[in-house]
Write a structure and sequence with these properties.
The chain is mainly α and about 210 residues long. The protein contains eleven helices and no strands.
């Protein structure tokens, strides 16, 4: 395993955040409705981690350090973990574990259905993130993992529907997402490769394109 200490540091850092939020909720430090704040924080945390996982490839292209890719899968798995905790907190704090109500919510509130679709997409990515899945699926693995892009768009739409009138923070996330998606357009990617070559003092022709 490459960079074991950095991986451990990343694991401890990301794992500690939900524990800290749960502690704040238990001590009423999240305001009059701590359950809802916890649900919102976990949802936004999942989105931030999803964006971070998508940022690894452009960072590798620009900076030239292959280590970015070593953390992509770990961050992506944590994005699913936060999304699962987001759902669990929603079921516990907002629905009181009334699972029958959840079925009704899926029908009555379209943004809940969008969240469920996004969670299925993240679950699919998480379940097929192993080396065994990569070997088993072969060339189909990359095609399958491109569902991360529509999943990201569904997550953003889900969040927009939730925040509605207060879309300032959502606009920031949407802008970052647009930049990361644009970085995967072939013409933009080539420009990133050339820019990286200039920064590192290497001939652009010798730079290898990195896709993912």
């Amino acid at each position: 395993m490459r960079y074991p200490w950095l991986r451990l540091l990343l694991f401890c850092s990301v794992a500690s955040v939900p524990c800290y939020w749960l502690y704040l909720a238990a001590t009423a430090a999240l305001g009059p409705d701590p359950g809802k704040v916890l649900v919102d924080n976990l949802g936004q945390g999942a989105l931030v981690l999803l964006l971070a996982s998508l940022a690894m490839t452009p960072l590798r292209t620009l900076i030239g350090w292959s280590g970015w890719i070593a953390f992509r899968r770990q961050i992506g798995l944590w994005a699913f973990g936060y999304a699962a905790l987001h759902l669990a907190a929603y079921l516990y704090f907002l629905l009181g574990l009334e699972f029958s109500e959840f079925a009704a919510e899926l029908v009555e509130r379209p943004y809940i259905a969008l969240g469920a679709i996004a969670l299925v997409g993240l679950l699919t990515l998480a379940m097929t993130s192993t080396r065994w899945s990569m070997r088993k699926l072969g060339k189909r693995w990359k095609k399958l993992h491109r569902i991360v892009y529509p999943t990201l768009l569904v997550v953003l739409l889900h969040m927009l529907w939730v925040v509605r009138s207060d879309a300032g923070q959502w606009s920031l996330y949407a802008t970052v997402a647009a930049v990361l998606l644009a970085a995967r357009v072939p013409s933009v990617e080539k420009r990133l490769v050339r820019t990286s070559a200039v920064w590192r003092g290497e001939p652009a022709a010798n730079k290898r394109q990195n896709k993912g």
